[in-house]
Amino acid sequence: MYKGELVELIPRPQEDLANLNRLITGLDSRTDPVSWRTAVITSRELLAPNDENGELSIAPDREPLDTSSYEVGQRFIEQLLSCTPLENLVPEFICAVYDLDQAPGLATPALDAILMNGRHLPEGLLYDLADELTQMNQAVAVVNPVGHYGDDETRIIGPRGLLQLVENLVFVASTQSQDGGDFGVLNQVVSLIDEEQIMSQVDRISIVIPMFGGSRGHRRGQDKAVGKEIYQAKEHPKNMSASLKEILKEQTDRGVKIPEITIYSVDIHNQQWPAEIFEKNGFKFESILPSPEYAQAVISHLDQIGLVDYPMQVVASDKGARLRTEELATAILLSEHPSAPRQIDVLSLDKNRVKAGEVEGSKLTQVVRWSVVDGQISKQVITPDDDYWNTERVAISSDDMIDTVGTQEKNGWLLRNLNHRLKYLISIATHGVLSKGLLNLNRAPVDHFFISNTLRPDGLLDRQDVTIINVAPAIARALQAQAKV
Length: 485
Known about the structure:
- The protein is an alpha/beta fold.
- The chain has helices at 6-9, 13-28, 36-47, 70-81, 90-98, 125-135, 183-190, 196-199, 232-253, 273-280, 291-304, 322-333, 386-389, 406-418, 472-484; strands spanning 111-117, 140-143, 146-148, 154-156, 166-172, 202-209, 260-266, 284-288, 312-316, 343-355, 358-373, 376-381, 393-402, 422-432, 448-452, 466-469.
- The chain folds into 2 domains: 6-289 and 477-484, Rossmann fold; 291-452, Rossmann fold (3-Layer(aba) Sandwich).
- β1 (111-117), α6 (125-135) and β2 form a beta-alpha-beta unit.
- The longest helix has 22 residues, at 232-253.
């Protein structure tokens, strides 16, 4: 398929139809989007005339187009980028194709956000976030600056400048290595801000790392005599902070106004190191909890299967999960869903972790009854009796990630042994690492899993017992909240 009159605008339609079609496909793709460099160079190649020998008149990766073709080129690029993630960057794209500082005849309205992909093969969350911001009536563009050389080494090329004022320049990439993320690649992509014509046009810079790879820190219990381990949860923030500070110093020395920079993650495992290191270096850090998204999905699911009226427990799988669990309980109780419960029991568990990925067992430490009274939540510690444990109910266990499924398995059996008539068990996990494979999910005595899209949900979409939760609305809320500060 070819877009409208595009074929009529290129000098060699018969020879270049395949190139045009590949470019259109790459611009529309969300799984393997064309890189900025490839899009620019292919456009030059398509628009360049032949010389007197019938050869291409320019080397498109080394020479811009002659401005004599500007009028046709503008029409071609406007139509090519129409209804694509680059539609709002037509002026910048034209400048790259023709090596111009301005795009004659084109307006340059301000943009609310430019999203920059920060990894090879972006996760769908990048485009989900763009969709979410667009639904909030924001003018948004998405750029993929990540490509590769012929030997597959990473090659990063993005716009050299912005003609339009941009409220928020947002870099997005999970850095979990197993899923193809790479903190080094993200760090290089963020370095694209080291241009005066970019820095001076941007009000805020946001670096969104949905799954912060290495955030679990180190393997507890490992013999120190084995060797010195580099803790990624410390080193990655140090390296990014150092790179950012160097760029900001250079831009400050040139008299450029420096935008505010905030680093975000989603439900990060280690609450200490990344935040502490970023903030020590002068950068804000925020871990986003997508509690409203989970609450809505869980209530809707229970409503659909006829279990929403059963007594409900929300379970913190360990001490580190308590804040997350309390946020979830609050979101469920205060949800606007018509079937939302008005009473929940919040259970706190502690687990005995032998080493990373291995849990020996868990124990119940406290039960607190949360109730909605006159729009406010009241809390009361209760001591369950035999009648309590013999009542049919629904339990919801919450954790930041699901990897070997050991925690979900141990806690699942504990809850089923406590609740002799447990009707339904739900497990929530923000990051679906699942390093041992999806079949490990079958080990846990869980009826349904809710896992977010901070990592690509490869294979999970085929399972009937898994619901993927889109956390883009939570990220969009955080970005908007920061804009109002």
